[in-house]
Structures are given as C-alpha cells and as structure tokens.
Amino acid sequence: MGELLRISRGRLELTQKQAADVLLVAESTYGSYERCERIPTTDFLRDADRGLDARGALLACIEMMEEEKYPPKYANWVRLQRLAQIISGYEVMVIPGLFQARSYTRALYESRVPAYTEEEIERHVDARLERQSVLTRNPPPRLSYVIEESALEREFGGPAVLKEQLLQLLEYMRTLNHLTVQVMPNGRHAHAGLQGPMQLMSTEEGRNLVFVESQAGSTLISRPEQVNGLFDLFGMLRAQALTPWESAELIERKAGQL
C-alpha cells in the first residue's frame, strides 16, 4: 500500500507535502502512511485513490488494511456496520466504542493486560475512532444503546477523562436525531441483560446479526433462532432501562459531579 501511494504520487510529480495538501492531511501523517509506519483509514484510501488518480489500486487495499486493524471476525462486523440500517448494543463495562472520546479510548487500551506497546495503542485507538464515521453517514443508521449505570462511573484515565467522555456522549444524544441512549440504573438488581454485553445489527438486506465478545473470544451469531431470541432480549432491556430523557439527566448529573 505504501509503495502504491509513492508510485501514484510520483506519477503526478507531487512531493509528499503537496500530496498531503491535496488529501487534506498533515504531511507527517501522509509520510507515515507512505513509509508503512501507520495503517491508513478507509476514508484516506478512498480520497487518495481519487486525489492521486490511483485508478482503483488503493481502493483494492481497503479490505487488506481492515484485516490489519481488526481481528478477522470483527473486521467482517465493521464492514457490515458501515451499511447497516439499524445498529444496537448493550454495554456493561465501558461507553460503547462508537461514542468514545480519544482520551477515553486511549485510557482503555493503556489499562489492557497484557499491556500493549505505544505503537499498538495508537493503532488500536485510530482503528476504533475511525468506526465513528458511521454516525454521520448519509443516510444514517438508526442507533439504539443501553448502557449500565456503572459504566458511567468507572474512571478510566481519571475523573477529567470520564467527564470529557460523558459530555461527548451527551452531545451525541442531543444532536443525533437517529440515536437513542438509555441507562440501566444500578437499582435494577435483576434484568434481561445479566448474561453480558452484545452488539446487534440489521443489514440493508434484512439480515439480523449479533456480535458477542468475552474473555474467551468473540462470536458472530447469524442463526435466526439464536439471533431472534437476542433481539427480543434487547427489546426487554430497553423496556427495563430509564427513558432517553431520564438517561440524559442522569448522565448530566454524573458529569457535573466530576
């Protein structure tokens, strides 16, 4: 991929700085892509294919780059998510990745056991934040999430990082009309989500899928009898959680206490 960037740039007789200006990225960022020091975002590869007249060569690298960024099963989930009509999820430990602030995401990866190197942390942070482009695509997907109240209290990176994260989540809730976030309060001692977190999706073709992660690995569930049961369970979770308005008030109070 780096060599394709260099060849395409050379064909147009551009310096790295000129190519960076054309593609609206920093010269250091462009250089790191060309030198294969960083994995480029999908949007960058699309822009570069157009801006450097690569004639589809850089577009062909997208799938390969995604396999570098994500585990194989999750790479498929990410590809499907970009075109999904409905994206839902239930989280128990952390704020969902689609809404994470950079400082919060970095704190999560810094706390991983076994530890990542600095290079690995940056790569994982960039890959996770890149997925957030789905929030503003046109047309947007319908988004619905239930988050455990305890996830709003866990101070990854310290109080300042958590406060920034809660305020960013509130901003998304207030500005994205296609997003619904509900909090499952600590006082619900028994509810439908006690078996753990999950991500759900409905594709353009009408397929329903569920992705489940655990300490032992991850599973992409597609069998209708399993998926339908989990979609029904998610509906129960929404009914048992606070309303979106009550949830926003709770998140705002927690941010104000930090």
Task: Explain the overall architecture.
With 258 residues, the protein is an alpha/beta fold. Helices cover 48% and strands 14% of the residues. The chain contains eleven helices and six strands. The chain has a six-stranded mixed sheet with strand order 3-2-1-4-5-6, sandwiched between helices. A hairpin with a 5-residue loop joins strand 4 (198-202) and strand 5. Helix 9 (159-175) packs antiparallel against helix 11 (244-256).
List the helices and strands and how they pair.
Layout: H1 2-11, H2 16-23, H3 27-34, H4 42-51, H5 62-69, H6 72-81, E1 86-91, H7 102-110, H8 118-130, E2 142-148, H9 159-175, E3 179-184, E4 198-202, E5 208-214, E6 217-221, H10 224-240, H11 244-256
Give average pLDDT, whole number.
88
Q: Main sheet: which strands, in order across?
A: 3-2-1-4-5-6
Cα distance, first to last residue? 44 Å
Kindly state the percentage of residues in helix: 40-55%
Low-confidence stretches: none
CATH fold title of the largest domain: Endonuclease, Chain A
Main β sheet profile: 6 strands, mixed
Q: Which class of secondary structure composition applies to the elements?
A: alpha/beta
The gyration radius over C-alpha positions equals 20 Å
Domains, number: 2
Number of helices: 11
User: So, CATH architecture of the largest domain?
Assistant: 2-Layer Sandwich
The coarse overall form would be: globular
| Strand residue content | 5-15%
Number of strands: 6
In the CATH hierarchy, what is the class of the largest domain? Alpha Beta
The succession of helices and strands, N to C, reads HHHHHHEHHEHEEEEHH
